[in-house]
Amino acid sequence: MPPFHEMSSFALADGIRSRTFTAVAVLDHFLDRIERFNPDLNAIVVLRADDARRQAEAADAAAERGEDWGSLHGVPMTIKETFEIEGWPTTAGFEKLRDHVSTRTAPAVQRLQAAGAIILGKTNVPELAGDLQSFNSIYGTSNNPWDTSRTPGGSSGGAAAALAAGLTPLELGSDIGGSIRTPSAFCGIYGLKTTYGIVPTRGHVPGTPGSRGKRDIAVAGPMGRHLEDLDQALALLAGPDEADAPAWRIELPEPTTDTLGDLRVAAWLDDVFCPIDQAVRDGLQSCVDVLRAEGARVDEEARPDQLTLKANHDLYYNLLAAAMGAGLTPKIREKLQPLTEDPDADDYRSRFARGALQSHADWMAGDEQRAQLQHRWGQFFERFDVVLCPVVNTLAFPHDQETAATERTLTINGQPQPYMDVTVWAGIAAISGLPALSLPVGYSDEGLPLAVQLIGPAYSDRNLLRIGQLLARHLHPDGLPFPRL
User: Which one of 23, 114, 152, 370 has the fewest CB atoms closer than 10 angstroms to its CB?
Assistant: First the structure.
């Protein structure tokens, strides 16, 4: 039998239910790894070991009585710090929430607990989940287990680092600007940005604690080391929130792909608007090579009608700024106002200000543009099954916390690029509400993880996972490796 941290979450639950091993033994295994490796990573920032042990003992007693708690019976796991759990701190790394203790549990977390999961701890995030690195004044900086001088990404960076290091078998992340997909790519694990609206995001901070509205663009989704974990976790998570539950049901279509040779793939491998690092490009090419060798039809020129990466990003960043700027204080809004005076200013600070302070009429016009784009994607996916493209334009990069995100730069193939370009490729799926999977494909010469992004039509989440499984058999036949810690 492999070590517990190499097993899938649902295999662990099977073993606990069948009494092949105990929930306490599984918990102790992960606690030992956390004690040994988390100090260097700072991935798990809230730990409730005693509570978890009591629950593990109860799970074992239930198994002895023949009781079945569900498909995650007795499995310890962690949750992104931004999800509320009753009685737990939920700060989103924001100083004004330093002392906030949740009085409710997010529905997505409830669904995992109802299936028998034991929440062991919470993982680190950037302040208000607003960066592609994970550091804040409350919990400090999370490090990438493949190279601790580099970021694990954000905003689900602690989650991805903990999974990569084998500190947790399953995670719940959230994504508005690549926050599931980019950390998954940087840390070499799997992450699913779900179709917009199929998993409740109520109980996520931001919004504000206690809010009940739906955040635009934002989704929740599973992260893990095994694609079967993501598929089974999705089955638990997907469903209407309580307000819609009396009348609505969500039944995701069954996977339709049986072999890679069946696939019609639109490969968007690079773009002059947002050039990608050569190592990332090499990882994409390795995936294309596998697809072609297996008989898939790969078209490197296909795009939805009239869609350019720049046009997509302009619309995405405008609505993203509106969503992220919704909670700004009057003082901050006043400070941003001068940045809106030049409508042609193309720097990210000015673009954010215009998006955050736009009128409702302007937002509605942008929302209509999005609806038109979603329609074009629907037509496009009548001819193609999946889009293959980068998750992000760079590998995991060194920590950079000296300036505001809108003022940073990254070096791509020797040339400076705006830091916020890390959201460009993630925005393709985000703005149109499409499902997208971050899939590890190998490692750079520096030993850093490489990944590709698979994007499918709305509600094709399960088929995306099936395609990922078929590719993983070629790319990682022995499973995902672990970093040397």
Answer: 114
